[in-house]
Hints:
Elements: E1 2-6, H1 10-20, E2 26-30, H2 34-43, E3 60-62, H3 65-69, E4 74-77, H4 84-91, E5 100-103, H5 116-124, E6 129-133, H6 138-142, E7 148-153, H7 156-163, E8 171-175, H8 178-200, H9 205-225, H10 236-247, H11 252-261, H12 266-273, H13 279-293, H14 299-310, H15 317-321
Parallel strand pairs: 1-2, 1-4, 2-3, 4-5, 5-6, 7-8
Antiparallel strand pairs: 6-7
Helix pairs in contact: 4-5, 8-9, 8-10, 8-11, 8-13, 11-12, 13-14
Amino acid sequence: MKIAILGVGAYAIALARIFNKNKDNQIMMWSKFRDETDVVVKNRENPSVLPGVKIPDEIEITMNLSKCMKDASIVILAVPTAAVRQVSEEVAMYVKKEQIICVVSKGIEPKTNLLMSQILYKATKNENICMISGPSFAIEIANGAKTGFDIASDNIEVAKIVKEQFENGIVVNVCDDIIGVQVSSALKNVFAIFMGMLNGMEMSDSYKASCLACLVKDLGDVIVSLGGKRETIFTFAGLGDMLLTCMSQKSRNFTFGTYIGKGYTMSEAFEEMSVKTVEGVHTLGTITDLMKERKFNIKSLEVLHGILYNNDNKEDLLDKIRI
């Protein structure tokens, strides 16, 4: 089976290596950018995101989107969230109705408040859209770490086809709550900032666990408010991904929150991390506006927004967000 992977970033490479272990698969990768393509083709790696992690020689890398997608049974969008709309519009020119399109980009589009699958559907009108998500750092799974994924789709049979392409040893579940999985995937970055902030404030493990319980409850409320299922919390894509991102120093959002907890401003934290932003900051603004629009009061989001943008005090956080 041919699988087209759009993107040559860290997660795209990780997925390419995973799918390539199934010897029945033929993998082709696409990049839009000449400089990036030249480096990756020459070195068989992307040193800017996954230095030392090789792309197998049998995987072809191209700038020709039509060629990459031709005869592919599965097309995977593994591009930055900000690029999903543009790439979706380009995909629409070549996609066939029988092709399955999977998206792994996480977030909510500012201004439109659309999830990634909704952007993709509006552009392509494809009925076979899936979301792949689960607790997974690209560097770990690229190097063979086992984990669990959820594949969510309105069409379970489509999700099952994607599931069959994963190598043995990775546990994959399928579900029909594509909204809940995407909301979980987006919000875990916001909540990682909150938990990182507690880490920077040197709060006790007991206090952190109590706050985390409140965040889990808020996650369920947001999922339901946007049309998903509360039980999606208890999946790899839900609690699994949330716990990984909220507890690991490898998480950029957790690291950013740690700086905030130590008293850094947002700009100072970005400077320390040598980044321009982190995913959770973008999502926080979008989801806060969306909840206000729908007249939902999500305490943790409002509290974090106030701290980051209004310099509100960080005292008594548990009392402010308690269930």
